[in-house]
Amino acid sequence: MSDPDRIKKNVFYTLFSDVEDIEKHVELIKRTSQEVADEFAASCSSDLAQNKSSSSENDVYEDALNSSDPVLKQKKLVNDLVEELFAITLNENAHSPTSTRVTVFGVTHLVYLKELASTLHPVTLIDLDILRQALFERLTLEDPSVNIIPFSAESHTLVPSWIIEKECITYLYDCFTKIRSRRHSLDKDMRVVAMKMIDIIHENVATALKEPALYEEGNSQVLAQQILNLFAYDQCALTEVASFLKGVASEIERDESDGSLSDAFAPTLRLARDRLKEADILNFPSYVMQLLKTFANNPSLAKVLLMHCLEEEGPPYRSEHSVANSCLGAALNLSCLPTTDHGIYNYFHYADNQVFASMELKIWSGLSALAEELHSIVKALIKAHRNLTLHWLGLILDFNVHRGRLSAVSATSQLRCVSHGYALNLSAVLLRLVKPYAVDGNGEKLLRIDPTYTSYSITDTNAAHERGVHMQTMEGETCLLGAAGGGEEGSSSPPRPLATAPFSFMTECFYMCHRSLDIGLRVVLEHMEEVYKQLVKLKNALAVATAQGRSPESVTLLKEQWLGLMKRYFSLRCALFEPSTFELLSGFVGATASWLVQVVLDDDVTQSPRDTYAPLKWRQLAFPLPDHIPATLRCVPEMLLEHTACYLVLMKRYAPQNVDRVPQPSDVSMQHVLSMLLAMMASNRRARNPHLRARLAECLECLLPLDNDTNQVSRFYRQQLFTHHPHVDQIVRCLLDVFVGIEMTGESVSFEQKFNYRQPMYAVMHYLWAIPKHRVFFKNLAKEAEDNMDAVQPPLFLRFLNLLMNDAIFLLDEALSNMAQLRILLTARENGEWDNLPDNERERNEMSLQHTGAAARIDNILGGETIRVLEYLSSEIKSIFCHPTMSDRVAAMLNYFLSHLVGPKMKNFKVMNNKDYKFDPASLVLNICRIYTHLGESDEFCKAVSRDGRSYSPKLFQLARNVLMRIGGGSVGEELEGVEGRVGRLAAEQEAEEECLSDVPDEFLDPIMSTLMLDPVTLPSSKVNVDRSTISRHILSDQSDPFNRSLLTMNMVIPNTELKERIQKWKAERMSIIMQRKIDEAAAAAAASADSNDASVDEESMDADDESDELRQVPEQLVAAPNTSSSSADE
């Protein structure tokens, strides 16, 4: 009986239930070995001619080959193959000097299995049954080199490493590759034997992976590392490795216990994850990616990989888990960005531009290679296990929805949140996944995407998967029409449509890709924009600190902060602009735009549920759009349009200067985008959110040709877009509709925010006005407005003009106020008034100065742009500015700002560095004066100028001409002089008329303007009488009764003809009385003048008589004194 303690120390002890089971197994092996030995001895004795006693074991092989017994001969061949392929033997004297054997692989040495040979003695041949036992012993040898024996004449050479390999999986894989290489040269019978040997290898590997303690505890082997090494050391034979693991997986799967396959390969996948975590984007281990691809391409191992990802990543929103905790998560986390929110940015700390560009190209190369590898893995996983793969992707996307909803990093620290790099890499993978059907805007497959995917409410996960829905959070997205998860205005609105058939794979991938862009592209872009703003502020602070001569330590600290932000900014930009992914993004944006247009044009008015709500066929876009609004727009998330805006903003504002390295959007893609923008901007019936529509107007600005675009092809395409697009005639109307729509947000949005929305629209207007075709469109809208001034709904151009003046008044007033405050602050600082202040108060003053300066800069930019728009519009569109509804407002605005800019107050706005604050008073004065000259031919406008008692004075235009002469606007000054003359003449006439119409009865006065009503109307709800022009101006901005806030439109006002007649009668009587009075005064003045003339005649007659008397006396005087007279005459 064997010693139990010795048995328990054996590495195979754990394979048996107890010691008794082991002893039975040993007895069975001995009996089998004895039977084999007896059979072998019998066969030998019949064929070896009585010389067995004289033959040594070295001669057995030669004699057996000459034997006529086929069984013995077959065993000899099997033994030979084992010795050749496994380099093991039971024959201590296997080498024979007279042997003629030549092995294919040049085996020079063998490992002698001493213990097994002793157990099986006298058997020395290894057959398939014994091979299993032989491999057990070979794999558990601590040092195989100790048991080496020579096998050929070349035995004096070094022992090949594979023969004495200690690592079990490495050794078995070497044997596996040799068998696969050798089997093609074997005959049919031996080929069967070789395949059985492969099965035995798989059995041993499977046993090792299921019971790793057999090898790892005693021999310090790391089986997972050995599997990784197969990929690392044999990159050229990956098909061999794949076949090897496939057989091992099949062998493990024969075990009926659940999870055995996952348990066997879990250490390998964890080690792969650790290797990826240690890597970086410039040098990630490609052999690990090959391992993952091998797993993904094998259905059994693919499931293991997916389960590993699901299990390692853990339940949702658990701070102790991370989606980067799986091997695929770790791979997705590779980037030039930190793996955590507060991580260190390790790239772009070089100041040299050449090194910088080289680093950018290297990172792009790494990101592109990684995306391609991950795409091939995910694609293979989908092919093997579509539902499970989509479930995994859906969980990742669902768990990270809050990335785009919570702005504060501190608020998300306890939530499960992927890194920026992870999110961008996931988008890169999904963009490649949708490339075959959602990157071409003209592809037929695009029409099979169903917009009602977001309507499905998940109550049962399995049922949802059967319907093709693996994301749970899409139902909560805010859609184009209505709030998230509901209809247009809450629970009372109709339910959203929902297809009855399962959603296609294309539909789900389409929405998954957009979700990934929402948590990736959009969030990273917002972060980069914030970093850019911080850079600008820090740069200004650094300039101020340097100029003020602050301590070197503080300046150095600011420089370090600035360099740190620069590293962050360039890392973010590099990650966003990886060329291959960016090109796919361009195509995807264009395809999404094309699909959205087809959804808008869906003319199926069927109310009953449909199998699918996908567009299915192409429809031609035409304006005006159909009155029918598809119900499917209640299912389309707003984020689809937001991603278009993100892409265009990224391309317009942040593209690297060397744009040749960054793919430009194709002309086809831009055509689709512009069509979609026009369709969504045309009316709020298809996109209710005015903020979103304002974002679309920003997209329009991003499509303009770039000022510094060195890519001539791209510039040409952009120019053609605004001149040759099929619906180019709709651009101006849509732009103005959005401009006006921003005011009607229905929300408490700050006035400043509305101006930020409108800023890009000014750039579009400037560009369009320079194109004659679009200038005609502006004029047509103005003419349409003039023809419909009293329409129920104020005309579009009239509302636009009214809001434009509101903007100008607010912005310029704020700008001048800020400039005056800046002057006070700067003067105080320059005069040294801050020097003696406490540090905290001086710091507060500095912050106030910076804040005021920033506000002044914004107001000056936007105010200047608004005045510029008014200037060029008034140059060719005059009559609507001079309409009674508008003329007073226009004149009052111009007078107010001109008086501030050229009057005594202009010195209040003078600061040292106007350019720093974008304050250009010369341009403002020039543009304002040009507006005067454009409109100066209208008597109505000139009267309105003179009626403005707040800012107008007869000296105003003289002061303006003086300024114009100094700033080089002499020609404008000459034209302004003519306007001044007309205004002065009409002012005199108006003053006389006002004098005539003094003492107006209160009932004839407009209650708002306190002026005589010319066309009184009665408001229906408040019953107040106001002048028509007054209420028209009010309704342009606010369609409500100014006295009780009830709804009011122009068609609701009631003309008060009776009051109008009374006013006209009073005015006529008053004028008649005044005129009669003037006539009487004139007559009296004439009579007085006549009396005065008569008196003058009498006085003149008396003087004449006196003169005659004197003349009559002259001769006498001359006679009396001739010399004197002569002298006087000479004088």
From TrEMBL:
It comes from the Eukaryota. Residues 1122-1131 have a biased composition (Polar residues). It is an enzyme of class 2 (transferase). Keywords: Acetylation, Cytoplasm, Transferase, Ubl conjugation pathway. Its EC number is 2.3.2.27. Pfam families: U-box (PF04564), Ufd2P_core (PF10408). It is found in: Cytoplasm. CDD domains: RING-Ubox_UBE4A. Gene3D superfamilies: Zinc/RING finger domain, C3HC4 (zinc finger). Pathway: Protein modification; protein ubiquitination. Residues 1096-1109 have a biased composition (Acidic residues). GO terms for biological process: ERAD pathway; protein polyubiquitination; ubiquitin-dependent protein catabolic process. Ubiquitin-protein ligase that probably functions as an E3 ligase in conjunction with specific E1 and E2 ligases. May also function as an E4 ligase mediating the assembly of polyubiquitin chains on substrates ubiquitinated by another E3 ubiquitin ligase. Mediates 'Lys-48'-linked polyubiquitination of substrates. Belongs to the ubiquitin conjugation factor E4 family. This is Ubiquitin conjugation factor E4 A.
